[in-house]
Every structure is written in C-alpha cells, then in structure tokens.
What we know:
Structural class: mainly beta
Distance between the termini: 61 Å
Shape: globular
Number of strands: 44
Radius of gyration: 35 Å
Strand content: over 45%
Amino acid sequence: MAFTRNGGRSAPAKFGLLAGAAWLALAASAHAQTPPPADGLGEDRLFMEADQVVRDDASQTATARGEVEVRYRGRTLRADELVYDEAAGVIRARGNTAILNPDGTVEYADEIVLDEEMKAGVATGFAARLPENVKLAAGTAVRRSEQVHELNRAIYTPCDICAPDGTTPKTPTWSIQAERVVQDRERQLVYYRNAWIRVFGQPIAYLPIFWHPDPTAERKSGLLPPKFSASDRRGFSYEQPYVWVVSPHSDITLSPQLNVKVNPFLNVHARKRFYSGAIDARMGYTYDTDFDGQGQSFGDATSRSYILASGAFAIDENWRWGFTAERSSDDLLFDKYEIGDVYESRGPYIADDRRLISQAYATRQDQQSWFSAAAFTVQGLRPGDNERTFPVAAPLVEARYEPTGAVAGGRLRTRASAVVLTREQSPDFPTVRLPGLDSRRATAEADWRATYTSAAGLRVAPFLHARFDAYSFDDNMVGVVGVGPTSRSVSRGLGVAGVDVTYPFFRRFSDFTAILEPIVQLAASPDLKQIELGRNALGQTVYLNEDAIAFEFDETNLFRANKFPGYDLYEDGVRVNVGGRASVFWDDGRRASLLVGRSFRDAPNEIFAERTGLRDRASDWIVAADAQPLPGVRVFTRARLDGDSLDVERAEAGANVYTRRASGYFRYLRSNTDINGDKTENFDVGGELYLTKNWGVTVYGNRDLVQEAWVIRDIGVVYRDECTRVDIIYRREDTVIGRLGPSDSVTVRLTLATLGEPLYGR
C-alpha cells in the first residue's frame, strides 16, 4: 500500500503511533506547551507526507520512505525513513532526522528509536538547538521518562559553533563537556557528571558534579557569575552571589564579599511579589572597625549595615500605596565596599545625590483627579551633612481636580496641598544646637487657560491663576537675632493674569522644513509681601524658602508666569517674557533647534537670588540649542548670559553618540555661583569603542576643573561575543572624602549567557 507524496491517511491507529514520534522530546530542556498552529489539523489528527508508504502484513511493519514529514500537535518530524514495528512495539526514524518544536527549537539525530507508548527512547548522533541560542550534542540521548532525559558524551554551549559563513566549524568561546548529562524537567535542572569547563577549547576547570538551571527555566536557585576586584582600600576581593528561589513569587540573593584587608561584607537582595504588588529589599552587614583609603583600620569594631528597600501595591483600580526605606550606618559605607545602584529612584519622592530618603505614600488617580498623601525623612551622606537639621515631612498632601468639558471656553484645574515640616535642630547655630524651624502650610489654588488660533496661525492663550496660602511657624530661631517672634501664623492671597502669544512661520525648502516661532508672554500679579523669618547676622532679610533653594533660571521656566518651582516664594509685579525658537527638520531625519529669550519686569525683584540672573528689570539671556546632525549623534547646549556684558554665567553642554561599534556621552557644566555661593566647573565623559568585532575599550572620567583634579577615572578592556562578556576595569578615585582618601582598584566582571543572568543585562 503506497501513497505518492500525498497528505492522506491509512491505518489511522498505527500511523497515529508513527506520527506520534513528532512530539518526541529528547532535548535536555523542557519545551513550552504552546497551542498547535492554525493549520487545520484537529487536536488528535495528523498530516503525513512521504514519497512512499508501504504496509507489510507478514512482518507487521509500516514503512514511510523518501522525504518523510509528519505534523502532529504542532510539531513536525522529518526523516529519510520512518518504520513502525507493531510486533516489537518500536518506532524508528532514520536518516537526517529532525524534530521542529512549536517554540522554534530543533532536535537532530542520526537515528531515533521510541517505544509505542512514547515513554522511553534512544537517539544516536543527537544534537539540539534550544532557546537562547543554546546548542547540545551527544553521542547518545536516552529518554527514560517524560521528565528525565539523559545525554552521554555530551557538550553544552550557548556560543556559535560555526563561522559567519555558516560552513566552517568554530570553537565556541566557552562550553561544558561532560561524560553524562541528565535533564530533569520537573526540577528544571541540568546535572553534569565528570564535567570540564572549556574556554576557547582549552579546559580550565574540572567538576566531578555540576548543575545549572535549564535554559528555559524562568527562575532557579544557583550561583551567579562572581566579581573579582583588587583595591587599596580592601585589598583583593571576591564576591560570589547565590540566588535562592524561595517560591514561584520570591527569591533571595546572597552575595558575600570576601576581602583580604578588611572583614567580609554580606550583601542580601530579597524580592517578593504579591497578588497586588511587590517588595524589593537590599541589605548589607559587617562587623569591623573603620578604615581609610589604604585599608588601615582605626576606631572600635562595631556593626555596620545598610538597607535600600521599596514596595508598591495596588489597593484597587484607582488607589496605590508604597514605601521606601533607605538608611546607612556609615556615611562612606557604599564607597568603601563598592556597592552600586544606591542613589536611584525607588518611590515618587527623590533625594539628592549622596542622600537617602525613606517614605510612605498613598495615591489615588482617575480620569479627572489625583490625590496623594505621604511622609518622608532624609539621611545625608555628604561631608558636613547634619541629619538633625533636615526636616521631616509628615504629612505631605497634594490633590488635583479637572472638571470635564470647557469652563468659560477654557480648561480649569484646581489644586490643594498641605505639608508639615519638623526640624530637630536649627542649621544656623550648630554649636549651640538651638531648636529647628517647624512650619505648616495649607494651599488652595485654581488655574484657568484657554487657547484661540486665528486663520492666519496667530495663537493667543489667556490664563488666570489664583491661590490662597496659610502658614504657621514654631521655633523660628532667625527671629532670635533679627526681628519677629519665634512662633506666628500668617495667610496670604495671590494670583496672576496673563496671555501667551505665538505666531509660527513655516517655510518648505527642497529637502528640509524651517520653522520660526516668536513667543511673547505677558503676566501681571499684585505686589506681594513675601514671608519673612527675620534677619541674618549681616542684617539681610531671610525669607521662608523650603522648596526653591536649588532654583535655576533656564529655558524650562523662561515662559512660566511664576518661575519659582515651589510654594514659599512667589513672583509678583508686571513682567514680559520674550523669546524666539527656530527649528529645522531635514527629510533624512536630521534636525536642529535654537531658543533665545529673556525676561523683563517693571521693577527689580530682590526675592530672586543674585546668582539666578532675575533680580534686575532685564534678566540674563537664556540660550538653548540641540541638534541631531547624524544618525546616532545628538548634541545639546544651554547657557545663561549676563544681560549687559553677555558673559557666560552658567552653561551646560553635552553629546550622546551611538554607532554600531561605539557609544558614549559627554557632559560639561559651568556655574559662576552655585547654591552654596561657590564656582562650579566639571565634566563627565564615558563610553566604549570596539576596535574589532569582539574587543573594545571602555572609559569614564569625572574632572573638577575648579580644583584641576580628576574626581574619578576608569579605563577598561572588554571582550564580548554572542555568549560571553568580560570586563576588566582599572579605576582611580582621587577624591578625599573624610578619611577615605584616594584609591586604585581593578575589577573583573564575567557574564555568561544562560548561566546566572541575562547577557548584557546591565
């Protein structure tokens, strides 16, 4: 009985067993059970195609020959010959055998033998291509059950084994070769016996017993790649992370750091996901004396630790709540033990660099409104920081509401906020430790804006803003040496009315479009008496300013009617903000833009700090430009120029570059007067350049141009390919923070694909 390249069926029961070999899974990896493709086949129906199918009743065999292809339950089996021996209960596939699985993996063998129940089988000349580019090869592969597979004389590698031309063999960057490999699908582990780890074909480590998670396992306990380093501070250091998967929803990473010069340091990273949210907590602990930049101990031994934790949860569709907990026992703990990713955002409120914030918050948001309530404290790790002078904000409440539809032809928004700030100590008198200023504020405000555009393109946007504030103070120590009581209450009403006018001009050229847009903003507010706390030792008025200390005048607030970002200070009087923006957009994706503007007012305003350039009737000039002159290249600059001399008072510039073989950035900052009254000038530069396909160099530097010294500088060598990344980085830290002092260090980072963590997952 023969079929010539036909999709028909014969002897359905027997050929069902024959085609069942298409879902033979001898690979040392569990495959995802994805639904069969929409090819018209039912759950238990098959498609078979062959040059010839022969049924021999005498020997009770059925044979399919010549480009055999069987599709069953989403899998495809291809072979030169397929034989079903009914008497022996054996299915045999021979010649160029390949199994294509629904998840894209492929298994190859010279010959596959399977029992008729498909619970056990053997393959010779076995090879498989699995997810994440993993390759497996073995002399024989044995399927002992649906859960346990065994490979003999096997090799495992996620690296390429062929040159780019696809024909020339290539030694993998790294591989594991073993006498025996057992894959346990139920435990999602791969076990090795008498294993050699080879790098570029050379054996570097022998392990009698070794195991790692199955490449398809999402999370599994095991060792992560280690980190090696050597520095003046700690000597040689070895850090070995271990991941313990506690449950499907939680894991703990233990990273003991062993140091030659100082005591070990234990890092712990715990994560747990709940049905409504998750907790992420990093902690560290050691018991040791303090030490300087050369690893010399001093002081008494004590417990030293840190915590960096956060959690976020959904209460229902609109409500969320969360927290962060950030604390360190030592100001320099993170620097001494090279603990990274410290000063990053973990919640809605963010502290400055080298400061930690602990907060608790709840928010509610829907289509029309927003509400939040929070409390937070800040720990300062900078030299000279005194936590007792930092305020505790508890509570901090903010609410916004925007009615649907237009109100008087425009958009109306209402806001309310309140905050209570409590200080333990006044920052003005550190030696006598006087009580710190405690303040309370409640605010209600409304903002209305409309936009009208003429047929000629003139855009007019009138706006109104009204606000009411109520304040109360206690322990106002400024009043002790100046004027005013130590406790009092004050309220005020304020507002602004104005209009924005813009008139953009468009011009189309042969290969680009140019836009020229003049901008004018007119704003007027009643004269406002700012909230005075008293006078300092020089007789200067001290105004309440808790939320605009770091204010800078630039293009982001040039066209703000009230340039102060917070509530305590408010811009009053009549002012006109003028500027012009020019933009060019090329058809090939290049672009460039330039903004120039300044602010004018009816009278000088001494509420603005001298360094902002906003005190005089005519402000400093604001200039900002950015461009993308080439694909992968972006440059920007912003500057504030003296209104009379055009001298540069503050400037920033930067560039980002990304190409096939290089990426990097450059940042420059110069300020004649920062918030502390000092001159600042520095630059950052960093990037990596690949000199060949696999080898490259990395650099990073931060230089203080005022002190004419490098703060930190790195240079490294990197090797990477499809399965490996090795970074060797030399770092020189020239900063002197407390007794830490300058330091030199060398760090080695190794990342192997499928082992420990995703490749290049930084």
